[in-house]
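::Amino acid chain::
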Amino acid sequence: MGTPTLQTGHIGLNVTDLARSTEFYRKIFDLDVFSEQAEGDKRFAFLGHGGDIVLTLWQQSTGAFAADRPGLHHLSFQAPDIATVHKVEGTLKELGADLFYDGIVPHGEGASSGGVFFADPDGIRLEVYSPVGADAAEAPTAGAPTCGFF
């Protein structure tokens, strides 16, 4: 008997400033705060949708995300359509977020799927994409997946 099919339960991220990160993720992903401890030595927040925890934030880090070390490469979130990706892009621009490319780009040469690639306040690399509709722009990384080398 093999392992049953698993699905992601939630994503937990270490952050340097709980209030700043909570506000960022709430605005980008329209998340509700289910539980948080914003004072003291053990600060955390649980965020989600419709009763399901999607993201947990833990204020227990210093510095910035190190893309040159083994571990997390990026987090990717699928949107239902390209219009939703455009909405996220607008929110990112309002927040002054660090975008890796100039707007929405395809996942690769000739691909219709694609999205917006950006960093959170601690430099964690993120992607919001749609399976179709991103083919209006050119792929920024020739000969390789866009989400692999940003």
Observations:
- The chain has two domains: 1-60, 73-150.
- The mean pLDDT is 94.
